[in-house]
Amino acid sequence: MSVLKTSLRNFFAHKGRMALSAIAVLLSVAFVSGTLVFTDTMNTTFDKLFASTASDVTVSPKDTDPGDVPQGGRPESFPASLVEQVRKTDGVQAAQGAVVSTGVTVVDAKNKNVGPTSGAPTIAVNWSSNELRSVEMASGHEPRGPTEVVVDGDTAEKHGLKLGDELRTISVVGDFTAKISGIVEFKVTNPGATVVYFDTPVAQRELLGKEGLFTQIAADAKPGVSDDILKANIAASIGGGYTLQTAAESADAGREDVAGFLDVMKYAMLGFAGIAFLVGIFLIVNTFSMLVAQRTREIGLMRAIGSSRKQVNRSVLIEALLLGLFGSVAGVAAGVGLAVGLMKLMSSIGMELSTDDLTVTWTTPAVGLALGIVVTVLAAYIPARRAGKISPMAALRDAGTPADGRAGRIRGGIGLALTAAGAAALVAAARAEEAGPGSLWLGLGVLCSLLGFVVVGPLLAGGVVRALGVVVLRIFGPVGRMAERNALRNPRRTGATAAALMIGLALVAALSVVGSSMVASATDELDRSVGADFIVQSGTGQPIVPQAQAALEKAPGLDHVTEYRWVDATVTDTRGRTTTADLAATEPSYVKDLRRETTAGTLTDAYGKGAMSVGSDYAAEHGVKVGDVLTLAFKGGEKAKLKVAAITADTGQVDKGAMYINVATLAEYVPADRMPQSLLLLASAKDGQETEAYQALKDALAPYPQYKVSNQADYKEQLQDQVGQLLNIVYGLLALAIVVAILGVVNTLALSVVERTREIGLMRAIGLSRRQLRRMIRLESVVIALFGALLGLGLGMGWGTAAQKLLALEGLGVLEIPWPTILTVFIGSAFVGLFAALVPAFRAGRMNVLNAIASE
Amino acid sequence: MTTAVTIPRHGGTGGRTAVAARARQVVKAYGSGETRVVALDSVDVDIARGQFTAIMGPSGSGKSTLMHCLAGLDTVTSGEIFLDETEITRLKDKKLTQLRRDRIGFIFQAFNLLPTLSAIENITLPMDIAGRKPDAEWLRRVVDTVGLSERLKHRPNELSGGQQQRVAVARALAARPEIIFGDEPTGNLDSRAGAEVLGFLRTSVDELSQTIVMVTHDPVAASYADRVLYLADGRIVDEMLRPTAEAVLDRMKDFDARGRTS
Hints:
The complex is a heterodimer.
Chain A: H1 3-13, H2 15-53, E1 57-61, E2 78-79, H3 81-87, E3 92-98, E4 100-101, E5 105-108, E6 122-126, E7 135-140, E8 148-152, H4 153-159, E9 166-171, E10 174-186, E11 194-198, H5 200-208, E12 213-214, E13 216-221, H6 227-238, E14 242-246, H7 247-294, H8 296-304, H9 309-348, H10 363-389, H11 405-431, H12 435-473, H13 477-489, H14 491-529, E15 534-538, H15 546-553, E16 558-572, E17 578-586, H16 590-593, E18 598-601, H17 603-606, E19 611-615, H18 616-622, E20 629-634, E21 639-648, E22 659-662, H19 663-669, E23 678-685, H20 690-700, E24 707-711, H21 712-755, H22 757-765, H23 770-807, H24 819-846, H25 849-854
Parallel strand pairs in A: 6-11, 8-10, 17-22, 19-21
Antiparallel strand pairs in A: 1-13, 1-14, 2-12, 3-13, 4-6, 5-9, 7-10, 8-11, 9-10, 15-23, 15-24, 16-17, 16-20, 16-23, 18-21, 20-21
Helix pairs in contact in A: 1-9, 2-7, 2-9, 2-10, 2-21, 7-10, 7-14, 7-21, 9-10, 11-12, 11-23, 12-13, 12-14, 12-23, 13-23, 14-21, 14-23, 21-23, 21-24, 23-24
Chain B: E1 19-30, E2 37-48, E3 52-56, H1 63-70, E4 78-83, E5 86-87, H2 93-103, E6 104-107, H3 119-130, H4 136-145, H5 161-174, E7 179-183, H6 191-208, E8 212-215, H7 219-222, E9 227-232, E10 235-241, H8 245-261
Parallel strand pairs in B: 3-8, 3-9, 6-7, 7-8
Antiparallel strand pairs in B: 1-2, 1-4, 4-5, 9-10
């Protein structure tokens, strides 16, 4: 019988055991290929969208990014005469001016925001024949005159909008109400933006503040003129000072806009797939080790009758190859399903993706299969080698070869050395003075301590399981004692099984420590430094429009309201070195709203005429002292020479390194229509009127649902919720690793039950009831799970603490260990153990006593 | 269910009847139709209390099956089996398990002990499982009788085959079951160790009034019994009281000869 045939027979003889390992491979591969399919599909969707909307050449003002909300709330524009100039350019078939603004919020008659919640923009544009490239009128007609607006169908459906309904568009220019005259449907998938269309003069007036202005020009080439030639011609015609993009370049730019978001998601998901693979490796190693151990006599016989080591080795590897192949093929298929599920999930949070665009490139199955097979075969290599080393004598012996005591000592030595190195690196990370080398130490520490724990795990099993036994198992009497002994019987197996669970739980613990430290640090800092009672900001990054600010300032019970604007500027120090910076343009009352220490000067002086403040880091780096004069070039404004009146201490996270100037100072150098708008407002109530003022602010903001007012308590809660949500997503993804680990526990138990068939028979014969037998197996499982949890949580808390100490450099000053979470996870892992034991315990209970006694 | 199952009995000393177990018209068949194989064919047998009974017979005679049925390990196709006054053939698994735990002791040919437990833990295991405290006085007597006082803390793999079987005997005796079943308990031992174990079984019958049923094919082992039952083709074909090894051997030669001619 050939090697291949033996492998095939063995493979199918252990279908059940193989199935569990195959599921692990499947899950990991599915995550990888699902991620690839999902991002490819997103790319296809965006490519189609950009391709359908872009004209041959697009002209826009220099240095603008159409995807960003303009700082001033009003997009850059140029006069209509430029459109005429482009139209007359050689090779231009047609040129149309367009008005596009993302600095808007659209609300329905009930003051409900109809904009997307997914982070996609609300876009207001003028209606022109160009729009018909990407949309078609589904009902009603195009917007005519100042009373009409057209909205996209997805938005209309989501918010129940009908023809004739009123929509109010809020921008810095003012509020503008119009009735819906038409609803358009996108011809390609619109991934989630809300789009409203106005008659061109209306769009100019209400979005840009003046008729006769455009923000973009769409030019199309005459037949035979390429986009590149057209672009060159237009550039020659209108001169510099504008950004010109061909259709292909527009698509690229658009793709780049979303690419950042896509990449983050892609790498996060691939990271989790990696963790799942790592855990899967333990499962595969364990499975093959057990199969080899179980087959020791058989392999010994094969060797005795003349199989070479190589042949035995190869036969095991071929089994692994088959496993990898089956798992990966199923994994790629499951990955496509996962991608579809992910798309459905995204659409539930407002990001529409159509399955029509489902894109599976050849790389997806190639990567999935290669990864799955290579990882499986590599994982099986050690057990395969061990199989090859089995001597022909094993055929004659009764049991497996006795454990090698020396290997245990070597193992312990290596494990302890790795753990010690990891601990040292973690301490180095915690004590690091700089973030760069510190994070390297942290990475090294995490890696070494993880490997150390994995290696030393089987040796720890004895002590830890016994300790757990005293606490958990003793109450179950002899059944508990037997469970404990069984868990300790093969420490290497118990260690490897628990290690799989350990990895996932270590990450959970580390992240929860960092997460709750983040909340605790931020809360602590808010308590210490923030004096303002209320904060107003938008959830979507929209600046606060003047009409909203005016409404808010009228609210009764307020002591003061402070504006807070960001302005881009190039800062030149006394020695002529320039840096670009975001300056915080605010009001003198800000010193009361946010208490900041200064290392020199008085912060109040920085709000004086011709004055500013800098942060201590900048001051140190540039040798700036109080009284020095810096040159600032404001974006959209003039150059200013400002005297440094104060230097703030760069501690804490809020406004770290900020340079402050007075809004009034900024207004001297930047024209009114280019002034950046407030990104947030701070307000304080008169003493004793906090509750009334809070309600009054909420009422004042009711017509402007894009803004949210919070008092300190609510703000803290939101902060906590945000971190909590983020952690929940991460936990959800880590659940994958935990599922694979559970499969490992199931696998180990199932095999233990088979191995102990005779023992189980004996115990049943002398009076162990089915229920006691099942309990014994469940307890063994629980103890393995708790062992893994204990190692994992301990390791994770170490990682988290080291990370917090390192991040203290970035202002994460407070360490908080979330004991309730840690305890919940620990107890939860006991249930994981119970769950994993369900099937093996059931099967053990069903075993026929006589057959069990009689079995070899 | 009668309380008899849950209240431990004292082997033989206070029994109401002289019969510890009896089988009535017991049939055990495997398969059906043409492939039907009858392992026990309407067997009637009484196991006397306080006696050492050996069951002998060639391979496939049904001797092990009979023992398994008497011990509540196997189900019967028809017929009734009584342990004392308890009819066991209709008991559900849970009650049968309790019955085995509280009223029956076992000694198997091999693999009698849990490798993870020490000798003394193995001995008290049935009582531990039942949640009963072993009678310390009795336990010491049993342990002394089988001569294991020095090795109680040892794990099975640290004991010789003979010692392991003695632990198994001690376990069977420790719970004071009504009846002990042995399935070739000396089958894996050399003659000296076998003689030792059989000696203990004999002693426990003589001094502790224990009831023992043992399946064996070894005439020497059978000679330790008070009574030998011969099984062939699923029926009890003969019986011998106060056997000697030679007499048993002769009788078996007869059977063999008959078996060959028939």
